[in-house]
Amino acid sequence: MIRAMAPSDLLLAAKSSLSPSELDDVGALVREANWNQLAADWRIFLTQGHIYAAHTAEGRIVATTATLPYGGRFAWIGMVLVAGEHRRRGVATMLMRRAMDDLAAERLVPVLDATPDGHAVYQALGFEDSWGFHRLVRRERPSSVEAAPAPPDVTVRPITDADWPALCAYDGAAFGAERPAVLAGLRGRLPAAELIAERVGRIAGFLLGRDGRIAAQAGPLIAEDDAVACALLARAVEEIDGPLFVDLADAKAELRGLLEARGFNAVRPLTRMLHGRSQRFDDAARTYAVIGPEFG
Question: Using CA atoms, how far apart are residues 62 and 154, in angstroms rounded to an integer?
């Protein structure tokens, strides 16, 4: 649902869906910020979390913040967007504080991924650094690259419906909470990235992805070691045409080398921050690439 609020010169509203004109409004916020989200991404927040919005008197959405609860332990905060003419008026901070108050009432730890511009703002709100990652971007697929075969005891293949329950449980153990509905919101959006790795009849890793406004995005990538992660991602990037994003954990140097050899460049650092704590919920060893800063 949408929980809407605003300063005194803006109006409040509560909605359970986005009308076509409101989808246009939030799409305009995404375009102005040069972000990558599509309507399908907003629908994940509508069905699984909350959107907080500020409206003008004419009903136009001019600022948003969204939350996604995960497993009764923590919740993501994302989509902190404000139209240019309404910036520097405290709208974003107000929406953030309201979202954080609601999460506190539900005893959920707020988590977010901060850009360098937002980092100091979130620190002032009580968020602490946990770990870092970089957005790596490939503008186009190279004509030829060095192969990255899977280890001899690992099979990489497309995900099937039969894999889904075990895959979601595997992801939940690595992420720190199960998130099957959010993962389901990615299925079918970037088929070439929907891959699973098996070792001796058990899951050794998987990859998903999604289409985007300016680029496709590969992630999450969860794997039990570097060799499996490299095999999964190498197969996907060889099949995906056009611009591609990967939000890769800084600790995963081997995989970063593989991506750089395939034409990827780092364009933006991000910091995962937790409110009132720095200890992460996810498994550092198995977390290679995240869905994206808006989803975790």
Answer: 49
Residues 124 and 90: their CA atoms lie apart, in Å, by 13
Asked if residues 191 and 215 have their Cβ atoms less than 8 Å apart, the reply is no
Tokens of 111: 């988590």
Cβ atoms within 10 Å of 148's Cβ, excluding its own: 19
Cα 204 to Cα 163: distance, rounded to the nearest angstrom: 12
Q: Give the type of residue at 143.
A: S
Q: Confidence class of residue 15 from pLDDT cuts 50, 70 and 90? A: very low
Q: Which of 66-70, 138-142, 229-233, 274-278 has the lowest mean pLDDT?
A: 138-142
Number of helices (H) and strands (E), helices first, in the chain? 8, 14
Give the DSSP letter string of 181-225: HHHHTTTTSSGGG-EEEEETTEEEEEEEEE--SSSEEEEEEEESS
In angstroms, rounded to a whole number, what is the distance separating the alpha carbons of residues 178 and 252?
23
Q: Does 56 or 153 have the greater pLDDT score?
A: 153
Please give the span between the terminal C-alpha atoms of the chain, in angstroms, as a whole number: 20
Q: How many Cβ atoms are within 10 Å of 288's Cβ, its own excluded?
A: 30
Closest CA to 99 of 138, 53, 133, 142: 53
